[in-house]
Amino acid sequence: MRFFHLSDLHIGKQLHSYNLKQDQEHILQEVVSYVEKIRPDAIVFAGDIYDKSVPSAEAVRIFDDFLTKLSSLEPAIPILIIAGNHDSAQRLNYASQILKRQNIYIAGNVPETEDEYLKKLTLQDEEGKVNFYFLPFLKPGYVRGVFDEEIPESYEAAVRKILEREHIDWNERNVLISHQFYAGSGQKMERSESETASVGGLDLIDSSCVQNFDYVALGHLHGAQRAGAEHIRYCGTLLKYSVSEANQNKTLHLISLGKKEDAVQVEELPLHPLRDVRKVRGELEEIIADAKLENKDDYISVTLTDEVDPYKPKEQLERVYSHILEVRMDNTRTRKKLEEFEEEAVVSDPLTVFEEFFEEMQGRAMNEEEKSLLVEVLEEAGE
Questions:
Q1: Rounded-to-integer distance, Cα 325 and Cα 244, Å
Q2: Of 13, 47, 65, 349, whose CB has the highest number of CB atoms within 10 Å?
Q3: Bridge-partner residues for 14, per DSSP?
Q4: Other beta carbons less than 10 A from residue 346's beta carbon
Q5: CA atoms of 235 and 225, how far apart (whole Å)
Q6: Could you tell me the CA-to-CA distances from 270 to 244, 245, 247, 251, 267 in Å, in that order?
Q7: ∠87-265-262 over CA atoms, to 5°?
Q8: For the chain, what is the total number of helices (H) and then of strands (E)?
């Protein structure tokens, strides 16, 4: 069985105030072209369809047009979608029963009561069944109703408990679609500036809790990477959504499942964005001279190394480059100025600051339940 694994479309996102509508429409059309050519057995979206929980009308139209093109292909290809932390579960779920008739399967919410379970879709190929389990983004508080109003002590505990209550036949092939922050034991994951920052790392989940699945299609991190094992993967975004991603190679992931005992195969198909995101460094005259017809419309982050600050550098750059994200200076003067602040105290994250305040006021450390509630408050404030 072959299926495409996509995530973090972030439709409606802006890059340093630039509207990415054309860029997103272009890259989504390339996905449609790949689907038309390869004809996979399914298309999986692992969350963060939109960039905001209340997407603009323009963003909704872009995704509607994309889904319409995919669902109109014959023979029909099942489309599987879960909500990410940027999505509104309720809005994404809208008309899901009607869309099901068009082979579009959406799970916005995790189970919320004792009699609810994960949405599951079973597809068939020449080797037998492949069960897809939908696990939308969750916080421990989301599933309190499943466990008699008891909130799991951590994100990892919440995921483990939700999966443990599912009746999974491990003799069959099983795929999990999930949107969380997973990592292998002791593994440092590559993060991007365009991702929502986690609070104190408490949202980290050890990937061992999903190890038994034949493939785990992850969303949340914007760089393509493994989470502890070859078959537990983030596919990354289709486009570069921050300067920190300038050196990343964005691809479309085609997953192939053979027999139960066979290793999963991952093919990364090249993508061709309308505009690249690049970092350029050098003296102003050099950078202006390097402008070519094929790269002058890219999104660029400029670092100038001129020892003498140029006159109105941004205005000069804008004569040849159409999408300048930022202009920085890095010379002897600016480095000396930075050295003066080297020994300044590092500001702790909000969770650490409050933990220290709580302990000083209460004479004891926060327990796990209190810490979990605080994390939820801080994350909601951040969103």
A1: 12
A2: 47
A3: 19
A4: 4
A5: 7
A6: 20, 16, 15, 5, 10
A7: 120
A8: 10, 19
